[in-house]
Amino acid sequence: MPATVARHRWTSADYERMLAAGMFEKIELLCGEVVITGAGVHAYRWTLDDYEQLIALGLLEGKHVELIQGEILIMASMGEPHALTIMQLNYALLPHFNPGTGFHLRIQMPLALPVLTSEPEPDIAIVVLDSPTNEAGRPTSASLII
């Protein structure tokens, strides 16, 4: 994992809202990390349901984060070369992967990947039109992820 990726830090107010929503038992906020307490202290591994609930509570609004293998990570800002590459890929792929071909091209939109405990927002994902989705309507698989 690149050194520039860091875990999201939670505030006391965030923690209080999670508790008020009934999200947890036996957790604490320690130096901005939600941890499980008991016999030992270890970082909480977020589930897709947890992540969706955090989004619904507005705790992730305006934050550039993604759920990757049970951790909520801060994602790097997009630079101009990155943005131009996404735009060029969109132009190249759209004629071949559009609703008329049985696919749709998703650009920086979330995918719910339960097996990986992840909800990434890949630059590009090619998804079959009738692909299964989770409760939030996010596809749970893709034919190609870039």
Give the arrangement of secondary structure elements.
Layout: E1 6-7, H1 12-20, E2 27-30, E3 33-36, E4 42-43, H2 48-56, E5 65-68, E6 71-74, H3 80-93, E7 103-107, E8 124-128, E9 144-145
Antiparallel strand pairs: 1-6, 2-3, 3-4, 5-6, 7-8, 8-9
Quickly list its features.
22% strand; three-stranded antiparallel β-sheet; single chain; 146 residues
Overall description:
It is elongated and about 55 Å long. The strands form 3 sheets. It has a 3-stranded antiparallel beta sheet, with no helix packed on it. It has a 3-stranded antiparallel beta sheet with strand order 2-3-4, with no helix packed on it. A 3-stranded antiparallel beta sheet has the order 7-8-9, with helices on one face. It is an alpha+beta fold and 146 residues long. It has helices spanning 12-20, 48-56, 80-93; strands at residues 6-7, 27-30, 33-36, 42-43, 65-68, 71-74, 103-107, 124-128, 144-145.
Q: Give the radius of gyration.
A: 17 Å
- Looking at the structure, what is the overall shape? elongated
The helical percent reads 10-25%
Tally of strands = 9
Identify low-pLDDT runs. none
Number of helices: 3
Assess the beta-strand content as a share of residues. Answer: 15-25%
Structural class: alpha+beta
Mean pLDDT: 90
